[in-house]
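Example 3.
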Amino acid sequence: MSIPLQKVMGNGVVYQRRTEIDSIIDKLEALPSEELVESCLDSENLLPMEVVLYFLRHKATSLHPLQYKKLFLFFVKRIQGSLLKSISNQQFKNAEDLRQEVVDRFMDLLVKDRNEGCSRLDYFEINFNGAFHKLRIDVLRQRGPAKKEDPLSNAESIESELTSEVRTDVEISALELSELNESILNDSSFRIQFQSAINELPNNERRVIGLYLQGLPIESKDVDKETISSTLDCTDRTVRNRLSRAYCMLREKLLLEAEL
Amino acid sequence: MNTNSDEMRDEVLYAFSVEPNKDSVTLEKYLREYPQYKEELIDLSIEIFANPNQDFSPVSEGDSKEAELVWERFQSSLTTETTVSGSSSVKNPLLNLDRSRFRALAKKLGVNSLFLTMLRDRTIKVSTIPTQLIGILAKELDVSSDVMRNALVGEPTVSSSVRFKADGKPTATEQVSFDEALDSCSLSDSQKEKLMEMKD
């Protein structure tokens, strides 16, 4: 049986790992330690990060120090591999510093966990992908962005949104947006391009189209319902303007990438 | 420096990040409950939406130097008690108790402070400690039995009180069995009997 998590939800219930994670942990726990570590180091069949983190947190004393070190190094290399893609040298001038900062912050949590206990790491055992996004975005917000393409270069279009009507030549249909959404959901290579393209949009445009694609309505007659306009404190017309601009910018960037 | 509001913000964002269903309903709920973090929540939701499965493939062997540096920094940041090459075990919840809570726990367990000190300092071989006793300890200290057992595994330590009072350099004592501990702690007959009944 895996060691239970300690982090408690808002409703007082203790978080649980996903069932499939617990079952992999249980299977590996039954193996001799050498085999356990070998399984964790298998590049062909990568285990979920949640599983490797579990053993990093709980096997420090029962594994041979050399085995533990191997496990640790492989874990770090997997984090670094992910960061090379999500904080790429093409996107950020200071990419290397930013990647290092993310790794350092994660290590701070791991050190704290080993020295005095740190239930925050439980979040990474529940959903490593989500929690790691949070950690990475924190660094980008606080230390970034120093993007190679400065979003402020789009300032002109932002100023004009207050006065202009939605121009028919840039007006977009719900159908076009739903096609975009479908491509994001179903095409993994398109998704990678989309992720890079949406991150290059100015904040206003990125947030509007990001919320729209997640299914938040632009407006609603129900005053209690969260909408894009109420969330971003702007009128529905401004939301539509930003949405049109965001879609055009995205299309341009995605077409450009497809040509390259 | 981390303030309480930073802590709160981090907790909210981490909680959102691990939500099993990050659909518009979940996002709406968080936006309504935590309007003060709406920008962060929106940005996080977009990142997760755009990339729900990050690729955690390792960097190539050629890039392993950096990982070695991370390992060295990690090792140097651990306290002596928790270094990987050291012999000590995981954090011990008994070490967090102040004197009055320590005594109260001993009373509740039906043992004297000396016996509890032996448990805390890992002077008793963990393989000989009754599972029931570890379970009761775990319950009282609000940790799982596994965590409690792991905390009692390892070589005996020298408690901080001994560390500061001793004239010479103190050394950790030899480990004894549960039965030997019962005999050497001046426990009353009824205390011994109760503990003996817990034996596996």
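Chain B touches chain A through 64 residues (CB under 8 Å). Confidence is low (pLDDT under 50) at residues 159-171 of chain B.
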